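Single Protein Entry

Contents — chain, fold
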Amino acid sequence: MTDIITQDKFAEIREGVRTVCNQFGNPYFQKVTREHLYPEEFVTALTKARWLSALIPKEYGGLG
């Protein structure tokens, strides 16, 4: 029973992050890796979707 509750609890998060990730295919990540680049577009997309803001303290504009 606990596993089902946990899965349902995170389903919205998984779907939201999956939606953003699906915007970027293997060629994007292969290029970033091959050229030793920072995945700026990917990080920006996650941030705009508010999936990275939870890592930032409220006093710096995050969700805490």
Remarks:
- Helices lie at 2-21, 26-34, 40-48.
- Residues 2-21 form the longest helix (20 residues).
- The mean pLDDT is 84.
- The two ends are 30 Å apart (CA to CA).
